[in-house]
Amino acid sequence: MSHATEHEITVAAPARVVYDLIADVGSWPRIFPPTVYVDYAERGKAEERIRIWATANGEPKGWTSRRYLDADNLRVRFRQEVSQPPVAAMGGEWLIEPLSGNETRVRLTHDFDAVGDDPEKVGLILKAIDLNSGAELGALKSAAERHGADEGLLLTFTDTVRVDGAAKDLYDFIYDAGQWQSRLPHVARIALQEDTPNVQLLEMDTSSADNDVHTTKSVRICFPADRIVYKQIRTPALMKVHTGQWSFGSDDGTAVITSAHTVVIDPGAITTVLGRQATVKDARKLIREALGRNSIATMRHAKAYAEGS
């Protein structure tokens, strides 16, 4: 038996801006709270196949979907090719309806079947859809209404370390985060859970330069020997969103490890955390230094591990 839901929201932004945000799944992890990572398997102008990882009822799930983009009619239809239990099948549609030049109604529909049509599973799926749809529509509204006005709040950067060792050993060091408490001086506590191979929940206490301890929780998606991507689902106070990637490769006969970060700064937290006179520039500087310091420290310990020193 199929089930159907619909959620909607009104957005004070042009319909085209809203459509473009929905169409660009690469930006979803920094816009939509449940979305952890999206990877294109196939990409065309009007049809694409994507692999997506997101949280549902607090648990990370991954699936493959096919999307059909109708830019002229402002619609995006989607259908999961491979669903994760308790979902047997799921699809839906984003419908963007201009109400005026600067006001848009967005409707998000879902249709689904539960494994065995079990009422308990149906209830779990409905709960996840309701929670995620509300979070996604609220985040979409916020992103569309801020569009073009908060470029200073978006911070991206990378750091790289070259290693006289094997890239596989670097990957193994980063993947085996359960050992970080004994391997990394800035890690005070670690809790690693991996119920699905290569999908990890990582909770960590880290010490900052001023000896404050910050607790973060991340979902990590591991692509063996290539990259590990993550999204913090519990962030420090200054960060509204924090996603990242560890990547591994070689260059001129040496192994290379790179740490990349994307951060959306929370403007409402700047003066609370840094003081009444603090600015976005101050927040960018602090975050760049703190994240870069910890990433470089981690990569240097990975280097020592790979080089056997």
TrEMBL record:
Pfam family, one: Polyketide_cyc
Domain of life: Bacteria
InterPro entries reported in the protein's UniProt record: COQ10_START, START-like_dom_sf
Protein name as it appears in the record: Aromatase/bifunctional aromatase (Cyclase/dehydratase)
Record organism: Prauserella marina
